Every structure is written in structure tokens, then in C-alpha cells.
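ARCHIVE CARD
Drawer: 12
Card no.: 0347
Subject: one protein chain, sequence and derived structure
Cross-reference: see card 0346
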Amino acid sequence: MTKSNSGFLPTALATLMLSTSPVSASSASWLRLGAETSRPYGHVEYCTRHAADCGVRKHRRSLPPARLAILSKVNIAVNRAIKPVSDESQYGQLEVWTVGATAGDCEDYALEKRLQLLRLGYEPQNLLLAMTHTGIEYHTVLVVRSRAGDFILDNLTDAVVPVSASSLEFIKVQSPDYGGNWLKVTGRTLTAPQTARL
């Protein structure tokens, strides 16, 4: 198991789990997910090292509230903790997805944010890696599902942005039901995803 950076989050952050930030229900928007699609090569290799993280997600609860204060703190903390460097420069390979990195690229930021939110009580099915395009290059972010919509944690900005306000082109996203699968993104929807499946 890869060593994690846990020291950069203040202990008091856990107490924020009790608070929620009001978000207008009328502005809630989620990514609309379609058919299964190809898996990013780096994620395939990641799953060989972290098989338990890439299986069926059996326990589903209703979507959690949007805890924007927590998401913001985690996003900023991880953005500050990891030094940006390409996989090619660091490993001599095009794609290496790493948890607990002190230096890395967009996938490493997204995986670390996911790990920190899991430790704070978020459930795996609500923390989805997503492949996007910035208009210049492909880029991976973390999408956090909530009853107030999907929110983006991105190493290119400290702001936690709802998908409804994002300029990113969403291409595919990790399946909420099976961590090793990826689904096409077919658009955005005002209808909350079903979350009661077991």
C-alpha cells in the first residue's frame, strides 16, 4: 500500500463534516452517464496494484449533502501539497497513477483528494475520477456527487465548481457501481442519479 500524505489536513477538518453549505436545489446538475467505455491505461495499471479499490460497490445510500467547506479545504490542501510534475519526467512513463504522491500530475491530485474524502466519511460511489478535456489537453479531475449536484475538485483551480458552471468537456467517468469500469458522459442532467441499488 502506498504511503499517504495525511499530515497536511488539520484535525479540526473532521468537525466540519457536521456542517453543510446551502446550495440551491434549482441549480443542481449532475453528469449524465451512458454506456461502458474504455478504461484509461493508467487506471488499468492502478487497479492491478489496488484491486480492492476497483470492484463492486454494494452499499448505496442516498446522496449526501453538499459539504462545500470540506470539499474546498481538501481541494486547496492537496493542490498545495503535491508538486506538479509529469509522469514522463518522474517515472519515464506516460501514465502512472499514484496515491500518496508528493509530486505528480492531475491523476495523482485526484486520487489523493479521493483518499482524503474517503477518510472523512465520503462513500466511494460518490467520489468519481473523470477524464475531461480542457480545450488544450486531456485532464483528470475528481467529481463529488451530492444531493445538490456534482462538484469538481481540480488541481488547476482552488475553486470547487459545480458541473453546471464548468467549461471542461467531460468525456468519461468512473462507474459509481463498479470502481474498475468507466462510463461515457453523455451530457448533464437536472435529474439526480438513482442511489438506492444494492
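Annotation on reverse: Residues 1 and 50 are 8 Å apart (CA to CA). The beta strands are 30-37, 83-84, 103-104, 127-133, 138-146, 149-153, 161-162, 169-174, 182-189.
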